[in-house]
Amino acid sequence: MTKNIPFSVTLGPGTYYWCSCGRSAKEPFCDGSHKDSGKEPVEFTITSKEQVVLCACQRTKNPPFCDGSHAR
Predict the structure, then answer these.
(1) What 3-state class would DSSP assign to 2?
(2) Phi then psi for 23, rounded to 5 degrees?
(3) What is the pLDDT of residues 22-72, one digit of tens each?
(4) What DSSP line would sit under 7-40, residue for residue?
(5) Contact 54/6 with Cβ under 8 angstroms?
(6) pLDDT tens profile 15-28
(7) Are 23 and 33 in contact (CB under 8 A)?
C-alpha cells in the first residue's frame, strides 16, 4: 500500500487506535507493532457513524486525521 494515499474509512461509534509508527499490518489501526519504536498509538473516539480520512504517512499535524502533509 502506498503511504501517500490516506485511508478513507467509514467508522461506527466507538474508540479506535490509529497507528502512529507505520509498522502495523492492520493500518490505519494499531496492532501492537509499535513496541520499541518510541511511538504510541493515538486513541480517538467516533460518536456516530461517519466517513473519516485517516493519515497514512504518519506526518499529519492533526493525528489521526489526514491534513495533506503527504503532498508536501
Answers:
(1) coil
(2) -95, -15
(3) 899 999 999 999 999 999 999 999 999 999 999 999 999 999 999 999 887
(4) EEEEE-SEEEEE-SSS--TTTTB--STTTTTT--
(5) yes
(6) 999 999 989 999 99
(7) yes
